[in-house]
Design goal:
Layout lengths: L17 H29 L2 H23 L4 H32 L5 H22 L7 H30 L3 H33 L11 H5 L1
Helix pairs in contact: 1-2, 1-4, 2-3, 2-5, 2-6, 3-5, 3-6, 4-5, 5-6
Length: 224
């Protein structure tokens, strides 16, 4: 499309396929809301910073899917604004997890590795299923792409939680758990910035005036 910028920031102004898109969002919303309750409770009981961070990520994603449902089918500008809000939410989440991880360095306790491993595996299965379902929307506008990025980052984070559980079990230390929480914070910060960047490009595209149409003269006018 003429007038689009580089780095995959601008997408054609087309509405998402309403039926498939809404169904995928509803499924993702239910899965993420349920996993937030399960993983959040387990994270608090086991003392795992990584599980708590992952559970809050589930909560943030559930809220993001709800926002996406609200703007599905709207004009590009509104979808870009929603994506901007979601990107800002991911950035805030990344900052919060960074602060929590730093606190855990001084005040945290060693988490329970079996609980971490079991919940990490359950979360991985849930997120991989959602990511596969949303894979076909990964190249859409900023709003659609943000949903895919959330699911992708979640699946990566779940693998990291399981690796942290192995590390905690093998060393008896909380450091693997804190390291994974730090990685998840970095993923949220990077993903949030990526979404904000693309949304800014789409907002500029939506606000740009249409290209002038070349004047056309009739045959009679040219003969004069």
């Amino acid at each position: 499309m003429s007038g689009c910028c580089g780095d995959d920031l601008c997408k054609p102004e087309t509405a998402p396929p309403a039926g498939r898109w809404r169904l995928a969002l509803w499924i993702a919303l239910v899965v993420n809301g349920g996993m937030f309750l399960v993983e959040g409770t387990a994270g608090l009981l086991s003392g795992s910073a990584a599980l708590q961070a992952d559970s809050l990520d589930f909560l943030g994603d559930a809220a993001n899917y709800a926002i996406s449902l609200g703007v599905a089918g709207m004009a590009l500008a509104w979808r870009a604004r929603a994506a901007m809000l979601k990107g800002a939410t991911m950035l805030a989440f990344g900052l919060w997890v960074s602060a929590t991880t730093l606190w855990g360095v001084f005040e945290g306790r060693t988490p329970e590795a079996p609980v971490m491993g079991a919940l990490g595996l359950a979360a991985l299965v849930a997120n991989v299923a959602v990511a596969i379902m949303l894979y076909g929307f990964r190249t859409g506008d900023a709003n659609m792409r943000s949903v895919w990025i959330c699911s992708r980052n979640d699946a990566i984070g779940n693998v990291a939680v399981m690796l942290a559980a192995v590390g905690v079990f093998g060393t008896g230390s909380r450091w693997p758990d804190l390291a994974v929480a730090a990685v998840m914070a970095a993923l949220a910060l990077h993903g949030g910035w990526e979404i904000v960047r693309q949304a800014q490009g789409e907002l500029r595209q939506a606000k740009a005036p249409p290209a002038p149409t070349p004047a056309r003269f009739s045959v009679a006018t040219r003969k004069r």
